[in-house]
Amino acid sequence: MALAAFLLIAAVALVSALGLILKRNAVHGALFLVVNLGSIAALYLMLGAEFLAAAQVIIYAGAIMVLFVFAIMVLIPGKEETGPDPRRSYRLLAAPLGALLLFELAVALAARRGAPGAATAPAGSVEAIGRLLFTDFLFPFELTSVLLLAAMVGVLLLARRRA
Amino acid sequence: MDLGIAFGRVAFVMLFVLNVGGLLTWVERKQSAIMQDRIGANRASIFGLRLMGLFHPLADAIKMLTKEDFRPARADRFLFTLAPFVSVFFALAAFASIPFGDTLHLAGREIPLQAITLNVGILYVFAMLSLGVYGVMMAGWSSANNFALLGGQRAAALMISAEIAIGASIMGVIMVYGSLNMQDIVRGQGEPLLPRVFGAWIPAWGILTQPLAFLLFLTAGIAATKRIPFDMPEGESEIIGYFIEYSGMKFGMFAMADFLESVVIAGMTTALFLGGWQVPYLTAGGFQFPWGWTLGLPHLLVVLLQVSAFVLKVSAMIFVLMLIRWTLPRFRYDQAMRLGWLGLFPLSIANIVVTGLILLVGRS
Predict the structure, then answer these.
(1) A55 at the B interface (CB within 8 A)?
(2) Which of A23, A100, B148, B310 would give a disulfide with A28, using CB separation of 3.0 to 4.6 Å?
(3) Which of B262, B234, B259, B194 shows the shortest CA–CA distance to B336?
(4) Chains A and B: how many Cβ contacts under 8 Å?
(5) pLDDT tens-digit profile, chain B (364 residues)
(6) Residue B46 to residue B165: CA distance in whole angstroms
(7) Where are the domains of chain B?
(8) Domain positions in chain A
(9) Phi then psi for B235, rounded to 5 degrees?
(10) Interchain CB distance below 8 Å, A34 and B160
């Protein structure tokens, strides 16, 4: 039962990731990414990390991607209006970099093979994550909030100059 | 057997939300008619039977299903068809973790009266509500119509500002009851409020412990349903909106999604602020009045009373939502944005700070 559910969700995740890369239409690609983020949330849910799953859906699928889709719909013209890709040369770099990433992942996975199932169930609960954030990871947590604050102030400044 | 019980729980919630949502088309007409001193829809009849216009939702459904299903020539075929389904799906799914009763003990089994039991139930409802915006945005974009696109973008902007206010206002409730599990929050509202001052007289319902959050949540919740006074994504007099190219049942599904979201907002308000399925002074064993009377009741009757109390409270909240919908005129787009970002959001942040301070003082 659990295996069947996993296979189904994993298939959805893979297909949506492929769709994101292969679709020429930017809106379709962005919507595929939403599906992908949702299926990753479902995988979190299967691992017992309910809070992570909810946060993934609310923050990534529900907030960030809404803004992405919003921006794409407003700024990027339809299929027939796009000319040849101006950054075609960058694509040559993509293949070696992708191969490098694949190699890194393979090395990382091979190194971890000794300890399968290391993720214990309660690690994804609200209490566990809250405790970790405010004890072991307090410094990075605060740094992130300063970063977000700086980004917010920057946005306010830019928006104000325009008006 | 277990699968059957799970199926029953899901079916109950789904049928409840769908039927109440369908009934709302009738409530909307009749309540507005009464408020405006009219008679309202009463013509649909079966063999001369009219039942105060109750057949009108049925007639509507038949009409919508038999109308031409039109699609603009330049529309994105797949997304154009998918959009109304996405809207309805997330509106329907959102109700799943709202508890409609306490645990039911039946034949040695413990059945939680909730479609899905999640430790982060409140976040689940929130997540489903926030995904609903994709249906609207997809509809606006795929119609290949600039007015639809404008409507979709207005809807997205409105729903994001509403969701932020919803998320920030429920934070106070989570802090007071100390849980993200909606069942725990409802149970916490059965405890007496300030027992040293009031004794066991007043239950600690969310509306009493978090009055400001209640108002903020209700306002943001109405905005999230995109209904008047927050219907600027449609705005008939200006842009018609994201569903301008839709007809037949696909159009009906967008209207239905708004009604379903009203039911979800009413259910969430009930669960978070009005004590959920709690009946005042009713405990698991029966009534225990603070003036000393007790009245023992069998378990099944207690559960039945609690579920009825939940349905009654949701209906009352829907009545209030309808009252607001037929009382206020539509906000202008910039007014709604200002209300969301400069009114609701800072107030809910202030509510979190004040709640935290009071909890800190109360504990020490």
Answers:
(1) yes
(2) A23
(3) B234
(4) 66
(5) 778 888 888 888 889 998 898 889 899 899 999 999 998 888 888 887 888 888 888 888 899 899 988 888 888 889 999 999 999 999 999 999 899 888 888 877 888 888 888 888 899 999 998 898 899 999 988 988 888 888 888 888 888 888 889 999 999 999 999 888 999 999 999 888 887 777 778 888 989 999 999 999 999 999 988 888 888 888 777 777 888 889 889 999 998 999 999 999 999 999 999 988 998 888 888 888 888 888 888 888 999 999 999 999 999 999 999 999 999 988 888 888 899 889 999 999 999 999 999 999 987 7
(6) 46
(7) 2-363
(8) 1-77, 132-163
(9) 40, 70
(10) no
